[in-house]
Design a protein that fits this description.
The chain has 2 helices and 14 strands; from the N terminus they run H-E-E-E-E-E-E-E-E-E-E-E-H-E-E-E. It is mostly beta strands and about 300 residues long. Strand 4 and strand 5 form a beta hairpin.
Length: about 300
């Protein structure tokens, strides 16, 4: 397998995908924190279908696979609480993301004399996400900024040589910033999310994925107080190399990918509690050294305050 790895191209980030699915983190009014104190709840149902063709190699859970295909269902429940502050220019909030995953994957293993196709599926709790503090800055009613750091502890099932692990088996830190601008005269909304995925060392596989920078931007045209539609653009760029014995043997290098797709938004209930639904589809293109596929996401947000 090492001889084959030296001769063929491989993928960056262990597993070829990482923490960030294309176009998944940017949300309608995602940078608006408060300013009224109280609870809000968001659910996100995310489906991702991707593959790695062209005889490219992918290190997954300590094993090298070729021509990997993956179907992923990720379901998040996100409660958030906004604290009472003395000024309406600054809002503070804490949130938590409970994650339930289903992963189905297949890939080819290279043996001395033949290749064997492996299939695997798994379901259960994934790696949770903790957001201890989000600082919301209200430049004006229509111009908002949110700054936070997300923590991904390895709470999901992870075993070596498993093709369909529910977690990544390592800590990840994501410092990020989000911005929301409302242009009410034109009924336009612009949302942006930028962050860095900083991966810690995976002690089980002795592999360290490189740091990944990603940004996502979304423009929505509100046809009325209830209905809007728009488009999403996203980019993922790995800025440091993977490291470890397996990464070194594969001559690992950095991955990048672009994504674009539509979004539809519907405000089911305007009065408190406000209920907002949105549906999006993001397709990747110009993908280098990462898994290539599409994201389908359904979101529901209920604001109680």
């Amino acid at each position: 397998m090492t001889l084959v790895a030296a001769a063929e191209p491989m993928l960056a980030v262990e597993g070829g995908l990482g923490r960030t699915l294309p176009g998944a983190w940017v949300l309608p009014q995602g940078a608006v924190v408060g300013p009224e104190p109280g609870f809000s709840f968001t659910t996100l149902a995310i489906g991702y279908m991707g593959s790695i063709g062209g005889a490219r190699l992918d290190p997954i859970a300590g094993t090298i696979y070729e021509n990997v295909e993956a179907n992923i269902s990720e379901n998040l429940l996100i409660p958030q609480y906004v604290y009472k502050t003395e000024t309406r220019k600054i809002s503070l909030a804490s949130s938590f993301m409970g994650v339930v995953n289903w992963v189905g994957a297949s890939g080819s293993l290279q043996f001395e004399s033949h290749k064997e196709r492996m299939n695997s599926a798994n379901a259960g709790a994934g790696d949770m996400i903790a957001v201890p503090l989000t600082v919301g800055i209200h430049f004006s009613e229509n111009n908002n900024l949110a700054i936070s750091t997300w923590f991904f502890p390895p709470t999901g099932q992870f075993t070596k040589n498993n093709l369909s692990n529910l977690g990544m088996g390592l800590w990840t830190i994501m410092p990020n910033v989000a911005h929301t601008l409302m242009w009410k005269k034109r009924r336009l909304e612009f949302d942006t999310f930028m962050g860095f995925d900083i991966y810690r060392h995976n002690q089980t596989t002795n592999y360290t994925s490189g740091t990944v920078f990603h940004w996502e931007t979304m423009a929505i045209h509100h046809l009325s107080k209830k209905v809007g539609f728009g488009a999403i653009g996203s980019n993922v760029t790995q800025i440091t190399n993977d490291s470890g014995p397996l990464a070194d043997s594969l001559h690992g290098f950095q991955g990048r990918a672009w994504g674009v797709g539509p979004i539809v938004l519907y405000v089911a209930k305007v009065q408190k509690p406000e209920v907002v639904l949105h549906l999006r589809w993001v397709d990747q293109f110009r993908v280098t050294n990462l898994m290539k596929g599409s994201t389908l996401l359904f979101g529901l947000t209920v604001t109680l305050n």
